[in-house]
Write a structure and sequence with these properties.
The complex is a heterodimer. By secondary structure, chain A is mostly helical. Chain A has one domain (3-202). Chain A is built from 9 helices and 2 strands, in the order H-H-H-H-H-H-H-E-E-H-H. In chain A, strands 1-2 form a two-stranded antiparallel sheet. In chain A, a hairpin with a 2-residue loop joins strand 1 and strand 2 (159-160). In chain A, helix 3 packs parallel to helix 6 (108-116) and helix 3 packs antiparallel against helix 7 (123-153). Chain A is globular. By secondary structure, chain B is mostly helical. Chain B is 72% helix and 0% strand. Chain B has 10 helices and no strands. Chain B has helices at residues 2-12, 23-36, 47-52, 57-89, 95-117, 119-125, 129-132, 136-147, 152-180, 192-207. The chains are: A mainly alpha, B mainly alpha. Chain A binds chain B through residues 21-22, 24-26, 28-29, 68-69, 72-73, 76-77, 79-80, 83-84, 99, 102-103, 105-108, 111, 173, 176-182, 184-186, 188-190, 192-193, 196, and chain B through 41-48, 51, 93-97, 99-101, 104, 133-136, 139-140, 143-144, 147, 186-197, 199-201, 203-204, 206-207.
Chain lengths: 203, 214
């Protein structure tokens, strides 16, 4: 029961992107297309689950004074594994994600979960938390990438949705840097409205 | 020994046959890193401090100075370890792990040295230093320098210019946000949402520099 709760909370209630606003850099940079979003979500989710597992397993062995460097080394190890695997089997995706694969190391979500959750909880709970947070991150990336790819390219996951007329002259700014900032502003604003509604309803 | 080291630094490791230092390339790197590919507004690196520390002009300047300083040091350290240790040993693929350890250690070291020798500077920069370890712009510039195969000199120039670009974005944003405090904003957009919208507007402005690099 509680395992399920640890899993579900990351997807909406404590969504790392929309609720806690962590891990913005890869989120904004990579959400250009749904394909990239899926790749980044899978890579970050894998690192998140593995690092949560190992940090939780070693939580009594790591002295608390040097815990942050230990976590960073653990995370960097898994990131290197992902980097090498992607480079070998998915070279196109690896090229698209580029510098943001090594930068998973400094993704605040992963260090945040290691420090905030995994080092105080049992291994199964930490894995459930990692899975939930990874899915929440992927879900947020897909939402953002859906907007950007449809507006900026007229496609979704490479499928042409809006026809030739749109794809020949799309709203290009959505896939450029400003589009990411502006869409993120509106999405966060939308969540603010939802929050206010809920508070109003409870009162 | 010294000449061997210099040779390694200038020629072998740079990956280019000509170690010559061209003014044109230097300017391209500087303008590229500050304006065209601004680290925050076009490469999306360092968004967390950009949103977190841009509420006041003073703290924005302090953070910017700390980032320029650590970026230059980290680039020096990472470049050296990569080309003089990892590549000769054939373990270049471990660069991510090596770089993050170097950066974390450097930040600690800088913090201790500042505390010992310049308490005033420590007071000014101290609170920003721990945040810098997880600033992806620092690791980002180190990895970019390796990917672009820059020589040590170009790497340092790129790092300092990237830091200045980061500071520029941060200071501009702080100026805007100080004004926003008094502006009538729709309640749903207060706080972070309006900050993102402003960053979007600034990013559009920076798109205008795109033709500068030629």
């Amino acid at each position: 029961m509680s395992l399920a709760r640890e899993f579900v909370k990351g997807i909406y209630k404590e969504n790392p992107i929309f609720r806690i606003v962590l891990g913005m850099c890869p989120f904004l940079a990579v959400s250009v297309s749904v394909e990239n979003a899926l790749g980044m979500g899978a890579a970050a989710g894998f690192v998140l689950v593995c690092s949560n597992f190992l940090v939780s397993l070693l939580r009594n062995a790591i002295p608390s004074k040097v815990r942050i460097p230990c976590y960073i080394v653990i995370i960097a190890t898994f990131v290197t594994i992902v980097d090498l695997i992607m480079n070998a089997y998915l070279p196109d995706l690896h090229r698209n994600l580029g510098i943001f694969i090594p930068l998973i190391v400094v993704n605040c979500i992963i260090l945040g979960r290691a420090e905030g959750f995994a080092n105080k909880n049992s291994v199964p709970a930490a894995i459930a938390d990692g899975l939930g947070m990874g899915l929440g991150f992927t879900f947020a990336m897909i939402v953002m990438a859906t907007f950007r790819e449809i507006l900026g390219n007229g496609t979704w996951l490479g499928i042409n949705l809006l026809g030739e007329a749109y794809t020949s002259q799309p709203l290009l700014i959505a896939v450029l840097a400003p589009g990411a900032f502006i869409l993120m502003g509106f999405i966060l604003g939308f969540f603010n409205i939802l929050d206010n509604r809920r508070k109003g309803g409870a009162r | 020994m010294t000449s061997f080291l210099m040779h390694t630094i200038l020629v072998q490791a740079s990956g280019t046959p000509d170690p010559g230092f061209s003014f044109g390339t230097m300017m391209t790197i500087i303008i590229g890193a500050i304006f065209i590919n601004n680290f925050v507004l076009s490469r999306f690196l360092g968004i967390c401090p950009f949103m977190g520390v841009s509420k006041q002009l003073d703290s924005a300047l302090g953070m910017g100075a700390a980032v320029v300083f650590v970026m230059a040091l980290a680039t020096l350290g990472c470049w050296g370890i990569y080309h003089l240790l990892l590549v000769p040993l054939g373990i270049g693929y471990l660069n991510t792990i090596a770089f993050i350890i170097i950066i974390a250690a450097l930040v600690q070291l800088v913090e201790m040295i500042l505390l010992k020798f310049s308490p005033a500077l420590y007071q000014a920069l101290g609170i920003y230093l721990p945040l810098i370890t997880t600033n992806c712009a620092i690791l980002g510039v180190a990895v970019l320098n390796i990917n672009e195969k820059y020589s040590l000199g170009y790497s340092l120039i790129n790092a300092v210019a990237a830091g200045i670009g980061f500071t520029l974005a941060l200071v501009l944003m702080a100026g805007i946000r100080e004004r926003l405090e008094q502006a009538p904003i729709p309640p749903a957009l207060k706080g972070l949402p309006i900050a993102f919208l402003m960053a979007g507007a600034m990013s559009i402005a920076f798109l205008g520099f795109a033709g500068l690099g030629g």
